[in-house]
């Protein structure tokens, strides 16, 4: 074994409720924005396949947990669907949901799989979106109540909690770049949504600590290291601002309890400071995370702006930088994302050097591939050597960061089994296990699933 990882390293994968459970309108579940968006625009991104289809984890969780075991999981990240537990976002708790999540958590533990539980994975209950979603302060209160309900119901067994998955994505998708409901372009609203998500996270952490349960709580952020085109000062400055907008905006308040100064200055200058109530900043300051989940897919390549921005165009972060395509970059042709394995090392090194070496783990990393059926061999197994290579190359960099002292505790792949995506339904497959939608969701372990098991068993490769 050339790359050995420390004892107790977390091997597993991540998934979310809306992308896997199905049963979208069953047993008292309320609607969230995805159920709603699919209903009103089924062909927008979804190819006519909605969150009600998915892999039906709601019904098949027992078999699926066996497959987790078979593919080497010692831990697994799931999310609780807010709109399943509290159908209207606030108010009545749905006992059927309590039963379901209890069953899943107990089943995982019975099979030696540590449950990592995330609270918010893009799934705003529709009733709360109707009052503005994260723009409305009432949603923060409702979220804290929801979080507290989860801690009280499941915290005797769940030892790893996360307040949000990629909270910047609903900001970008919903209020800047049009890939999440309510798909508006409004920088002011985007900032308010970001601020309230961060505040909600800090308040949930505060609520968790008050309960004195024996576990840890963190947040999961998608970090996209910003690389400047050159070392000239204009390019460096462009990369620095892109980093402040897209990484430090959430990383700094989550880990250090404060916002990046450059960003605050821009918001001030441009008249976009959010509404803040007295006491909010102190809550953020005092309730930083115990641990950080890092989702890493791709870097951001940045250069100084070439043309002056149109002053009449809606304000966007891109007023301060341009993106560029690095010549010779490696691409995932299916998802259109650059593959740059060293990025994972740069993130871990940055956390070690500039964020107090906060305890962290890779909470998502993975490769979405279209048309994997053509790689199925005569024994029915998908021969996804490209995925094995993808994971391996990233793990080598994680290993190097570890050797240099990074406080990284595990690696979770996106994802366990092929699932429904927010932006392409079932087109891109990410799983260690394949799902055949034409055969009632039949599951088969891919070659990568077998390989992953051996990595987890040997704690290395
Ligand atoms: C992350 C999300 C996941 C998942 C993944 C793959 O941003 O946390 O929920 O969707 O990306 O992305 P996609 O499904 O868009 O290819």
TrEMBL record:
GO molecular function (one): beta-glucosidase activity
Pfam families: Glyco_hydro_1
SUPFAM superfamilies: (Trans)glycosidases
InterPro entries, per the entry: GH, Glyco_hydro_1, Glyco_hydro_1_AS
GO cellular component, one term: cytosol
Keywords for this protein: Glycosidase, Hydrolase
Superkingdom as given in the UniProt entry: Bacteria
Family per record: Belongs to the glycosyl hydrolase 1 family.
Identification of the protein by name: 6-phospho-beta-glucosidase GmuD
Organism from which the protein derives: Robertmurraya siralis
Organismal lineage: Bacteria, Bacillati, Bacillota, Bacilli, Bacillales
Gene name tied to this protein: gmuD
């Amino acid at each position: 074994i050339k790359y050995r990882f420390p004892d107790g390293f977390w091997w597993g994968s991540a998934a979310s409720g809306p992308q896997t459970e199905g049963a979208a309108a069953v047993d008292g579940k309320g609607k969230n924005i995805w159920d709603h968006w699919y209903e009103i625009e089924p062909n927008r991104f979804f190819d006519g396949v909605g969150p009600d289809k998915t892999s039906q984890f709601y019904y098949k969780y027992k078999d699926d947990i066996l497959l987790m075991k078979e593919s080497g999981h010692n831990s697994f990240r799931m999310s609780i669907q807010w709109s399943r537990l509290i159908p209207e976002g606030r108010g009545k708790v749905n006992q059927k949901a309590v039963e379901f999540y209890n069953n899943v958590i107990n089943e995982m533990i019975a099979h030696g799989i540590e449950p990592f539980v995330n609270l918010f994975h893009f799934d705003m209950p529709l009733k709360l979106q109707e009052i503005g979603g994260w723009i409305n302060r009432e949603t923060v209160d409702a979220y804290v109540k929801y979080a507290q309900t989860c801690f009280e119901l499941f915290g005797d067994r769940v030892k790893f909690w996360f307040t949000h998955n990629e909270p910047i994505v609903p900001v970008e998708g919903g209020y800047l770049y049009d890939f999440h409901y309510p798909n508006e372009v409004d920088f002011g609203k985007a900032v308010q949504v970001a601020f309230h998500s961060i505040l909600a996270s800090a308040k949930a952490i505060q609520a968790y600590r008050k309960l004195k349960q024996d576990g840890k709580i963190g947040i999961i952020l998608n970090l996209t290291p910003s690389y400047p085109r050159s070392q000239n000062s204009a390019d460096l400055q462009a990369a620095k601002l892109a980093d402040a907008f897209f990484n430090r905006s959430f990383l700094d308040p989550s880990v250090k309890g404060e916002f990046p100064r450059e960003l605050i200055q821009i918001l001030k200058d441009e008249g976009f400071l959010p509404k803040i109530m007295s006491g909010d900043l102190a809550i953020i300051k005092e309730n930083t995370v115990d641990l950080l989940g890092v989702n890493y897919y791709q870097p951001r390549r940045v250069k100084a702006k070439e043309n002056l921005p149109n002053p009449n165009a809606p304000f966007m972060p891109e007023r301060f930088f341009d993106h560029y395509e690095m010549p010779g970059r490696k691409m995932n042709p299916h998802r259109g994302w650059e593959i740059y394995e060293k990025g994972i090392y740069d993130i871990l090194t940055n956390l070690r050097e500039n964020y107090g070496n906060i305890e962290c783990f890779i909470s998502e990393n993975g490769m979405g591939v279209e048309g994997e059926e053509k790689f199925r061999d005569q024994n029915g197994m998908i021969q996804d050597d490209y995925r094995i290579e993808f994971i391996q190359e990233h793990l080598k960099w994680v290993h190097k960061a570890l050797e240099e002292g990074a406080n990284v505790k595990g690696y979770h792949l996106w994802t366990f089994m092929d699932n429904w995506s927010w932006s392409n339904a079932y087109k891109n497959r990410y799983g260690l296990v394949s799902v055949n939608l034409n055969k009632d969701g039949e599951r088969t372990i891919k070659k990568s699933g077998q390989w992953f098991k051996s990595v987890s068993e040997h704690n290395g490769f």
